[in-house]
Amino acid sequence: MLLTLDVSNSTIKAGIFDGEKLTAFWQVATERHKVADNYAVLFLNLFHLAGVDVKTITGVSMSCVVPRLRAVFTQLCTRYIKLTPFVVGPDVKMPILLDMDYPSEVGGDRIANASAAYALYGGPVIDIAFGTATVFDCISERGAYLGGAIAPGMMGALESLVDRAAQLFKVEMVRPPQAIGKNSMHALQSGMVFGFSGLVEQMVRRLKAELAQDSAKPVTVVATGGLADVIAPETRAITVVDHQLTLKGLRLIYEVNR
């Protein structure tokens, strides 16, 4: 079985694959101060509760955008799972071609998302990751990773606003009753949910127009991340939501490099 790890700025996702099938999945908050032993206690207990025997794990595929935690999770894997993780980055084999000015700038999570989006849904395709940032990746019909766009994440934008405005407060990220907020809570929810839906629609429209210069095929738009379920119902720009896109990409790239 393959363990996949997506270590991002806000969350850490872990998944167990038996062949192509995802058989177990966990998501925990990223805590940068923790060491390998802390995370080992957490994940080994999660594995135990799910009935996963560490001895059955034959490989680890990981993406990590937090430099300090890359060493932490490498140590966790080598010490407790007895395996050196395969770390996804721009220098590994992948099912797409990085057509970028500076390929070294592309993070492993974006490579995993783009690889899975292209392999599973075909090209041209746009994947949108709703995380710490709102990230758009564009892959051509022939499988070239062309780049994309990075906007603020929804939660980060809300937290920044609350920090700078004394009378505002955090709200649950859900659809308000209407666009015209009758109170501060609904006004904030309107701005975040409908505002980011508009951001997505505008970005997708522009990205599709540029992708259409090289292909007449329809563009599929795949969304992933915890807040994809909040935005997707508010716009026709998103074709499908795939919450495990990153982990699927980590598995695909691991197989390509075996």
Mean pLDDT: 96
Low-confidence stretches: none
Radius of gyration, Cα only, in angstroms? Answer: 19 Å
Distance between the termini: 14 Å
Helical proportion, percent range: 25-40%
**Overall shape:** globular
CATH class type of the largest domain: Alpha Beta
CATH architecture term of the largest domain: 2-Layer Sandwich
Kindly identify the CATH topology of the largest domain: Nucleotidyltransferase, domain 5
CATH superfamily of the largest domain: ATPase, nucleotide binding domain
Distinct helical segment count = 7
**What is the topology, as strand order, of the major beta sheet?**
6-9-8-7-10-11
Textual characterization of the structure:
It is a single chain. The chain starts with a strand and ends with a helix. The chain has 2 domains: 86 residues, 2-Layer Sandwich (Nucleotidyltransferase, domain 5), CATH 3.30.420.40; 154 residues, Nucleotidyltransferase, domain 5, CATH 3.30.420.40. A 6-stranded mixed β-sheet has the order 6-9-8-7-10-11, sandwiched between helices. The chain has a 5-stranded mixed β-sheet with strand order 3-2-1-4-5, sandwiched between helices. 39% of the residues are buried. Helix 1 crosses helix 2 and helix 3 packs across helix 7. The chain contains 7 helices and 11 strands. 38% of the residues lie in helices and 24% in strands. The chain is α/β, with parallel strands linked by helices.
